[in-house]
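Reviewers asked in the last cycle whether our approach scales beyond single polypeptides. To address this, we selected a multi-component target totalling 210 residues and predicted its structure end to end. The input consisted of the following lines:
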Amino acid sequence: MKKLNFNDIQALPRLERMHLINSLGGIKSANLIGTMDAVGNENLAIFNSVIHLGSNPPMLNFMMRPHTVERHTYENIKDTLFFTVNHVHEDWVDSAHQTSAKYEREESEFDKVGLTAEYRDNFSVPLVKESLVKMVCSFVNDYPIKEQNCHLIVGQIEALYYHEDIQHDDGFLDLTKAKTAGIIGLDGYVKTNSLKRYDYARPNEKPSLK
Ligand SMILES: Cc1cc2nc3c(=O)[nH]c(=O)nc-3n(C[C@H](O)[C@H](O)[C@H](O)COP(=O)(O)O)c2cc1C
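The resulting structure, written as structure tokens, was:
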């Protein structure tokens, strides 16, 4: 097995180090974050850092890169206090990936990549019509992470939309049925297969299947 210590990693060429380290956190969720600026320009961008924070109240968070260049998603969220999170379906990962290109503020990534903006329940932020799992979130907090000059954005789930046929009786959403894509690093998209579901684990008991 290959071994790299800190100094070996630091000595790697920049792009090789980036691809290597970006793969280490494991297979990530593929989400599109939808926003609108104060004058009505829609924005859509792919993020692989969305994770749930807690269920009561329902909240999630995601990581925003350093604000050293224009970051439309970040600026729009700070201006309008709302955003949407939309699961990427494996059939349209090419469109989802293309949203990471640096489009102008006035250009809508929805139009550029061929996805459809959808507005529900009087929220003024765009959802992705093609997504089978999607939500509207309100901005809760912005935590600067000084070690990497990033921002951890916390949002509260205000409305959730999903196809009922992917839900189990206990609430669990089977995202393999929704064909939600996963991401390795920043450019490797994967399909998912269901392995097993387990009951709540207790010390000294064998894991039991649901
Ligand atoms: C697979 C993938 C995952 C990404 N994940 C993130 C992320 O978690 N946080 C982030 O700030 N940028 C992430 N990006 C980069 C943004 O998608 C990119 O900066 C985009 O241009 C932002 O658009 P905006 O300026 O319209 O917000 C990711 C890009 C790719 C290709």
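The chain has one domain: 26-190. We regard this as preliminary and will revisit it once experimental data from Aim 1 are available.
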